[in-house]
Design goal:
Pfam families: YbgT_YccB (PF08173). The protein is mostly helical and 43 residues long. The chain is built from 1 helix and no strands.
């Protein structure tokens, strides 16, 4: 049964990576929509 936990953990890690990538893209587009492309960011 160890393989079930391993597959579940691997699937969760992949899901977390996808959600993180989508979050970063959403954050960038949100800042661009609110502040525009010309404003310098403090990153």
């Amino acid at each position: 049964m160890w393989y079930f936990a391993w597959i579940l953990g691997l699937g969760f890690a992949v899901l977390l990576a996808i959600i993180s990538a989508v979050w970063v893209e959403f954050e960038d587009s949100r800042e661009e929509a609110f502040y525009g492309k010309d404003k310098e960011r403090d990153d």
